[in-house]
Every structure is written in C-alpha cells, then in structure tokens.
Design the sequence.
C-alpha cells in the first residue's frame, strides 16, 4: 500500500486491511511469468514460422511478409475468441496471450461480440475499441514522440 | 417489532409458503444441481441478449414460486425484487410481466435477503397477505457490465469470484405451511477501504460480521441457536476472513454452522476461483438448497446473511473504495 493511500484510511481500516491481506491468496507472480514467457514465446515462434512460410512459398520479402503474418495470427485469435476458447487459454497464460498481437485482436473481437446485442452502430461500432482504444491512443502518441526525438537528433 | 438496534422480530411469523430456484448451465454442473427447480442448458435461454436471459430467469423463478405456492399472479399484493443490472432492469421488466405492485430494490448481492426481510415485514404488519421476493444475476451480463467482455482474455487473480447465473424467488404468506420467517437484521454500510473489484470477499466480510454480531446481540442469542448460518457470497477468501474476524471479536462459531452460499453452490473442480457470487448466489442457495433441507427436516433454524458490494463500474474506475452491506433473515421450521 502506498503511503498516500494509507493516509486516507482510518486506523481501523488499516488494521482490517492487514488482517485481510494475511488471509488472501497471492497472485502466483513467478509461475504467471514463466507461463507468460512460454506461451508468449510460442505465439512469437508461430509468427516467425508463418513469416518464413510466406517468404518461402509466396513471393514476400522479409518486410512485406509481416502483413500476412500478422493477419493470420489475428484471424486465429479472432476465431478462438469467437469459439469461446481464448479466454480460457488466457486465464492460464496471462500476459503470454495478452501482450502479442493476438491479445489485441481478442480485445477488439470480444468487445464486438459482447455488444452485438446493442446493434451495429451503438453496440459493435461504439464498443469495439472500448479496451483496445487506449492501446491505439497511447501507441500512436508514443510513436509520435519517438519520431520527434529521432527527427531532432538526426535532423 | 423492533428489537435492539436494527432487528425486526416478526410476531405473526410470516410463512415462506414456497420458493423456487432457476439456474444456468454452469450451475447444472455444480454441487447443488438437484436443488434447482429448473436448469438451463443455454446461457442465452433462447434470448438474443444476456440481459433478456436474466430477465427470463427471474420471470421463471417468480412463476414457479407462485405456482408451487398454489396461488395465481393476482393473489400477490406486492413484488419486491433486486438484481445487479443498471437500473435493476431484470427486476422491473419481470414486474412488468407479472403485473403486480412492485418495489424495486438495490442492495447488490444482498438484495435477496433485503427483499425477503421486507416481504416478511409487509406480511407481518398486515399490509399484505402474500408478497413475493426475488433476486437474480447472470454471469455474462454481470461480467459485461462490471468487468470485461465475457470472451476477453484477462487473467483473474485467485481472489476473484464467479457470478452465479440464476434467480431465486420466495413467496411469503400470512398463513400456510412451511418454514417461518422469524426475524431480520438490516445491516449498516461498512467500508474498510478496499478497492479491488476482484476481491469482493475481503471487502464484504466486515459487513457480514457486523450484521451477524448485531443480530445475535439484538436477539440476545448464541450462534449455536441456529443449525446453520450462511453468508451470501463471501467465497473462500471472505469466508476465511469472516470466520477469523468473528473469532477475533469473541464469537467462536463452529465451522459446521458457519458456511457460505458461494462455497456451497459449485463443485471444487469447477473453475470458479474463490467461489460463487452475485444476487443469484444467496437467492438460489437459500430458496433452493436450504428450503429443501428445511422441508426434509435436516435443518430447523437457519440464518442467511446476504452480503452485497455496493460498487459501480464507474466508482471503482474513479478509485473509490467498495462500500458493503449485509442483511440477515432468520428462517425457522
């Protein structure tokens, strides 16, 4: 607990929170990290294999092959989300399935499926980027800042 | 009649004439499947949205309870109900179907006992002959509103709970056969400053403990007066904390008396993490499992302390802590 947060609590609340904390199961951080490492690694390896496949059997080079590779991973992720499997894998794999592009696809797809009942405009359209929106906003903004730095330094 | 600080003692002992519990597919695989009146294979219940499915659960619970009580809709004077949806739509829309004078309640997951206490109060005081109390929750509808889309792959911590897809209804009448509602304790809102919506058990435990202690104090009875004291949906984490907190306060309640609906409803091998939660949890376990056990004569006196976390998706995003409440109703054979 941060000291700022602690300041707003009464002594009774602090005492209870310590009492409760001692009885709560902790997140298995180490185990979660190991699982995330392996699952995330498997997804990236699969991506690499796809990229080689597109380079070997289709006429893509190293740069252009990334587009069909990402698209394939997204399709797999969306299908797994639609069939209701992805969230079960994610409960086990944690950040391993959340961080790669598959996690992004899952966040968009799951929100779109969820809000289908409110119609295509206010439901699907309005909620699709409910979770992914902040990734896009801060991703684009960080890219902008990095680009500025590059221009200033390199001219 | 008010006894002590916050407890009503019902002199005329209103009767819980009949009750019904309806559940979803996950509850059908649970430990109490046999105690449900109806279990659905489809989480959508043939509807085109989760919200409509929840309304359907509640309608079925009410219809079944009325039918089992040998009454008709027209015989019910008041319908009291609550759920977790915004603006308690499941309750209001069910009231529209029933066409019975309606009082909508919101006590989050404590709504089941809030409704039963008020229904007993109405009948006991002579303001109603027959009153119907109900509560419902739907796993996917609750996840959608309070957390993430159902298919979103967010890892839940070991303190998270599983919202029950189910509805329970109880028909309270002035005369009849069945368990009697003898007293009810209305709880204070307690906030211990916890703000993690994935750890409701720890947030709600102090409210349950407070209401339970005040109930025993107001009535001047010992916990062993009851064959069973069940908290609503504290789950594994909250149940442990509540038990230890009670012991800390000098109330040593034997573990075979103190239990939790969130622990009873599912089997150990179901992936519910810390246990069940939601309005439907205490509602289905009380109106299904406990009532069946009472009617079979296995339990003579029970106390249900339904716990509710009074947060909204907005309040926790604004970093507010989680205020909690618990209401207790005692039912005796």
Sequence:
């Amino acid at each position: 607990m941060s000291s700022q947060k602690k300041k707003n609590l009464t002594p009774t609340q602090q005492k209870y929170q310590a009492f409760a904390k001692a009885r709560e199961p902790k997140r298995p951080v180490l185990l979660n990290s190991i699982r995330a490492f392996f699952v995330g690694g498997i997804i990236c390896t699969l991506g690499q294999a796809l990229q080689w496949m597109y380079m070997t059997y289709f006429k893509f080079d190293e740069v252009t092959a990334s587009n069909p590779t990402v698209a394939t991973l997204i399709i797999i992720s969306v299908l797994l989300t639609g069939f209701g499997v992805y969230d079960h894998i994610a409960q086990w794999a944690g950040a391993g399935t959340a961080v790669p592009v598959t996690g992004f696809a899952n966040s968009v797809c799951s929100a779109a499926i969820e809000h289908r009942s409110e119609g295509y405009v206010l439901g699907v359209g309005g909620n699709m980027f409910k979770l992914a929106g902040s990734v896009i906003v801060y991703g684009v903004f960080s890219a902008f800042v990095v680009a500025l730095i590059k221009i200033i330094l390199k001219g | 009649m008010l006894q002590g600080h916050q407890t009503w003692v019902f002199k005329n002992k209103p009767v819980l004439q009949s009750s019904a519990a309806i559940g979803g597919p996950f509850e059908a695989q649970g430990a109490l499947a046999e105690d449900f009146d109806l279990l659905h294979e489809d989480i959508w219940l043939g509807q085109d949205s989760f919200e409509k499915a929840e309304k359907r659960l509640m309608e079925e619970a009410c219809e079944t309870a009325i039918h089992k009580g040998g009454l008709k809709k027209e015989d019910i004077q008041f319908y009291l109900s609550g759920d977790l949806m915004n603006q308690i739509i499941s309750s209001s829309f069910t009231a529209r179907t029933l066409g019975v004078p309606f009082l909508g309640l919101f006590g989050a997951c404590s709504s089941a006992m809030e409704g039963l206490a008020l229904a007993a109060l109405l009948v006991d005081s002579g303001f109603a002959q027959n009153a119907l109390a109900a509560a419902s929750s739907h796993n996917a509808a609750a996840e959608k509103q309070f957390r993430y889309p159902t298919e979103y792959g967010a890892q839940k911590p070991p303190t998270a709970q599983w919202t029950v897809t189910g509805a329970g209804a109880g028909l309270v009448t002035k005369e009849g056969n069945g368990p009697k509602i003898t007293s009810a304790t209305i709880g204070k809102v307690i906030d211990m400053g916890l703000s993690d919506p994935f750890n409701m058990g720890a947030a709600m435990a102090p409210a349950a403990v407070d209401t339970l202690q005040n109930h025993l104090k107001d009535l001047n009875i010992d916990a062993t007066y009851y064959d069973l004291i069940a908290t609503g949906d504290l789950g594994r984490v909250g149940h442990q904390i509540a038990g230890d907190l009670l012991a800390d306060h000098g109330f040593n309640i034997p573990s075979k008396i103190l239990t939790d609906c969130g622990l009873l409803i599912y089997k150990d091998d179901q992936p519910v993490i810390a246990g069940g939660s939601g309005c439907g949890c205490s509602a289905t376990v009380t109106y299904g499992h406990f009532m069946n056990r009472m009617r079979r004569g296995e339990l003579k006196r029970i106390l249900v302390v339904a716990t509710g976390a009074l947060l909204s998706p907005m309040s926790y995003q604004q970093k507010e802590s989680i205020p909690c409440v618990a209401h207790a109703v005692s039912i005796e054979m």
